[in-house]
Design goal:
This protein has 93 residues and is an alpha+beta fold. It has one domain (2-85): YaeB-like fold (2-Layer Sandwich). The chain contains two helices and five strands, in the order βααββββ. It has helices spanning 7-23, 27-44; strands spanning 2-5, 51-53, 56-60, 66-73, 76-84. A five-stranded mixed beta sheet has the order 1-5-4-3-2. Strand 2 and strand 3 form a beta hairpin. Helix 1 runs antiparallel to helix 2 (27-44). The longest helix is centred in the middle third of the chain and has 18 residues, at 27-44. The protein is globular.
């Protein structure tokens, strides 16, 4: 399977990384490591995560209050958002 990011999801990751780095040097990289681990799990077992809305699936990132929102489209996985779970859920795709 191929992995694709929307512009929104890339921006979500960048903003979270910068915020965590401002909190403590190196914490942003810890966040990226956890995102990478979740993405590897999604690539290996794309259908294991529950559909939270329509065809959108939700993978909660370990250690951080974020979820990766994605869809499976043919042989592609589209990352739509890396959502901060502390936000209003109405903002989710």
């Amino acid at each position: 399977m191929k992995l694709y990011y929307t512009d929104r999801s890339q921006e979500d990751i960048e903003l979270a990384f910068m915020w965590y780095e401002l909190q403590r040097k190196g914490l942003g990289f810890d966040f990226l490591d956890c995102v990478e681990t979740s993405l590897r799990n999604i690539l290996e077992f794309p259908e294991i995560y529950v559909k939270s809305y329509s065809n959108y699936r939700n993978c909660v990132i370990r250690r951080f209050p974020f979820s990766i929102i994605y869809t499976i489209e043919g042989d592609e996985i589209i990352i739509h958002s890396v959502f901060d779970n502390r936000q209003n859920p109405e903002k989710r795709p």
